[in-house]
Design a protein that fits this description.
- Helix content is 39%, strand content 8%.
- The longest helix has 15 residues.
- Helix 3 packs antiparallel against helix 4.
- It has a two-stranded antiparallel ribbon.
- It is built from five helices and two strands.
- By secondary structure, it is mainly α.
- The chain has one domain.
Length: 122
């Protein structure tokens, strides 16, 4: 992880509230990482406003889902992280408007997905 991810050390994970440890703590689920709220694969930017500090466990579990899609999955499984993720989503929406759902990707990403399926790249 980068030095910037290390800034999350000792702070609570944005998604679960767990106190994060050094980004050098390889293999520890509490390792400080950064997540793109709108995933890069869905057109999310590299800007700071699109990133949060979170633990490795939450970052891995969210993967490339939008925050809204991940929240739907967490609710379905009655995951205790729901409250924290709802707060992150509410702050995001207040500042930026609705987040992009996986089912509502920008059209150019759908075109790429379609081309990859035609060529067997998926």
């Amino acid at each position: 992880m980068s030095r910037k991810a290390a800034k999350g050390e000792g702070k609570p994970c944005a998604y679960c509230g767990l106190k994060m440890v050094s980004s050098q703590a390889r293999g520890d689920i509490r390792q400080a990482t950064r997540d793109h709220i709108i995933p890069r694969s869905q057109g999310g930017s590299l800007k700071r406003s699109n990133r949060v500090h979170c633990c490795a466990r939450c970052n891995f579990h969210k993967a490339d889902m939008s925050l809204e899609d991940w929240l739907t999955l967490l609710r379905k499984h009655k995951d205790p992280r729901v409250g924290c993720v709802e707060r992150v989503l509410a702050v995001w929406q207040r500042r930026h408007g609705p987040a992009i759902r996986s089912s509502n990707k920008p059209s150019w990403l759908n075109d790429i997905d379609h081309q990859e399926q035609e060529h067997g790249d998926v």
